């Protein structure tokens, strides 16, 4: 994916395809959803921090869908551009050059989800 990717369209397409898996593999998908709910449940780490961690892992793992979904969540949770960028810096540190390419995509994805924070 590139910085010209529309992450809202990408996540909508992924959601549609995941819906097919939900229909054909309900037990697996229910298990995944339960794991997701448990991992994101309130605890010692707040929801925004958990989503920042997920974004960093998504970048280091080179997952465009992860970038799309987690930047959307971060925008809903009120993450700042500075918080996202610091998270991306750690992901690049841990993932090297390939992670840098996905971090650049994550900048674009967050700007699409929180356009009020994008530079003019």
UniProtKB/TrEMBL annotation:
**Keyword Amino-acid biosynthesis: yes or no?**
no
Q: Where is the Carboxymuconolactone decarboxylase-like domain?
A: 26-108
Q: Where are the transmembrane segments?
A: none
Q: Which domain of life is it from?
A: Bacteria
Q: Could you tell me the keywords of this UniProt record?
A: Oxidoreductase, Peroxidase
Q: Which InterPro entries does this entry report, sorted A to Z?
A: AhpD-like, AhpD_core, CMD-like
Name one molecular function that GO assigns to this entry.
peroxiredoxin activity
**A Pfam family for this UniProt protein?**
CMD
The record's section on PANTHER family has: ALKYL HYDROPEROXIDE REDUCTASE AHPD, BLR3452 PROTEIN
Q: What is this protein called?
A: Alkylhydroperoxidase like protein, AhpD family
Its taxonomic placement starts with: Bacteria, Pseudomonadati, Pseudomonadota, Betaproteobacteria, Burkholderiales
